[in-house]
Amino acid sequence: KNLVCGRFALGPLKKGQGQLISSTLRKTLFNAIECTCFTHVKFRHSRATNVLQNIYGVKESISEILDNLNQIKLKRKFRSDLGDLQGPLYASIDLQGPRSVRAKDIKCPPGIVILNKTQVIVTLTDNVRFFAELTIETNSADSLPPRRLETRFPPEDGYAIDAVFTPVQKFSESIHLQDFENENLQTEMLFLEISTDGRVTPYDALLKASEKVITLFLSFYAGEKKGTYSDLAERVRVKAIKSSDFGEDSEDCPDDWQDSEDWDDWEDADQDWD
């Protein structure tokens, strides 16, 4: 499947800080990054009583339709005129067969964009009308209600979609020491590689994960110190080395990204972080 790969560097850091930061970011990236998914579908004029049955005039079973809907990638666009898109929002499909119904045929609300428009949803084999109402929600893996995925709806109320709120697919890190004659001045550079499914860019995922971690730690300063995200951000430099769509597999990214000559300018950076 297509992945978007981004590579970043963080530093200079004191020795040991690279591993601390990467371990914290790893869990946050995989569990706390919000994305948008279809979470529920309701079919009109359906006589099916369970997910293994077919809707009249539709080739796929309801179970297969739910799986196809789950493969559709949604991206939320932030627009000031749309207000809060946290949801739930609603989309619909209303078509007459015979024909193939794809993701591009979904009527989405403003601010919601479908990334893989050619994804097949159903195949209408007869002259029947296919109408479906879809629920759209924005959430993160660690914010899902307990036992949400085990919820069962009566057929007349629709069916839950096993939505996956995990846009980050891969994360890897590499730590490189910068040696100086004085061991007390030894620093390190942290290199990160983040791959997402496109619903969130690697750079945005890194920013959101960092903000969540910083906000959590700032809570300990309540009533003691007033800290801001920008105050802490000034103490460390982040550089995006490369972020682009590498097609079917992010492993196609070049392996020499850590040897970029751009980092020569960092050697004279201020080492005093106290």
TrEMBL record:
GO terms for cellular component: DNA-directed RNA polymerase complex. Residues 246-274 have a biased composition (Acidic residues). InterPro entries: DNA-dir_RNA_pol_insert (IPR011262), DNA-dir_RNA_pol_RpoA/D/Rpb3 (IPR011263), RBP11-like (IPR036603), RNApol_insert_sf (IPR036643). Residues 244-274 are annotated as: Disordered. GO terms for molecular function: DNA-directed RNA polymerase activity; protein dimerization activity. Pfam families: RNA_pol_A_bac (PF01000). The keyword Chloroplast applies. The keyword Ribosomal protein does not apply. Residues 5-223 form the DNA-directed RNA polymerase RpoA/D/Rpb3-type domain. One of its GO terms (biological process) is DNA-templated transcription. Keywords: Chloroplast, DNA-directed RNA polymerase, Plastid, Transcription. It comes from the Eukaryota. This is RNA polymerase alpha subunit. The lineage of its organism: Eukaryota, Viridiplantae, Streptophyta, Embryophyta, Tracheophyta.
